[in-house]
Write a structure and sequence with these properties.
Strand content: 35-45%
Structural class: alpha+beta
Oligomer: single chain
Largest sheet: 8 strands, mixed
CATH class: Alpha Beta
Helix content: 25-40%
CATH topology: Alpha-Beta Plaits
Strand order of the largest sheet: 2-3-1-4-7-8-6-5
């Protein structure tokens, strides 16, 4: 029995160390006209269980959300909360902690697809921008849809798949 348990435990530890961990989310919201607007988004973001803190820059309509470790959050969670407050996302940048993750153009890793990127190994904290509809302005998405026509998954608009570009 010990011979079977050890390889399984080793495999599980290996999967955990290769997982991507979102540590911070920078959200630029659109449609805000006053401090009450930003307060509505702030309240919504703070209701997310794994949120450690939310910082607001009113001049840029920017919300910087710091997350607790070992969270399982996706970009959709944040988009839903911003929209629940009655606003939209103009851009979303994730700070992700990678553990020696090899990426290349159009490579899918879990629910993420890297597009418009070079082959590289990501190790440590890396910033990536979410390029999907609902995570950039409508004008930018229209432009990106023409640029990224070669990526079949981009045009489909699957809510569970996120297209990322390293920045």
């Amino acid at each position: 029995m010990k011979k079977i348990i050890f390889p399984i435990a080793f495999l599980i530890v290996g999967l955990i160390t290769n997982a991507q961990q979102i540590t911070k989310v920078e959200i630029m919201a659109t449609g805000l006209t006053c401090s009450m607007c930003s307060n509505a988004i702030n309240k919504q973001l703070k209701t997310i269980v794994d949120v450690e803190k939310v910082e607001i820059d009113l001049n840029k309509n920017l919300f910087v959300v710091t997350l607790k470790t070992n969270n399982k959050l996706t970009p959709k969670t944040f988009r839903d909360k911003v929209e629940k407050a009655g606003f939209f996302i103009g851009s979303m940048v994730l700070s992700v902690n990678f553990a020696n993750q090899n990426i290349e153009d159009n490579k899918r890793i879990d629910n993420y697809i890297f597009i418009d990127t070079k082959t590289q190994t990501l190790n440590g904290l890396t910033k990536v921008k979410v390029l999907d509809k609902g995570y950039v302005t409508a004008k930018e998405y229209k432009k990106l849809a023409k640029t990224f026509v070669k990526y079949q998954t981009y045009a489909k608009g699957d809510e569970g798949i996120f297209h990322l570009k390293t920045i």
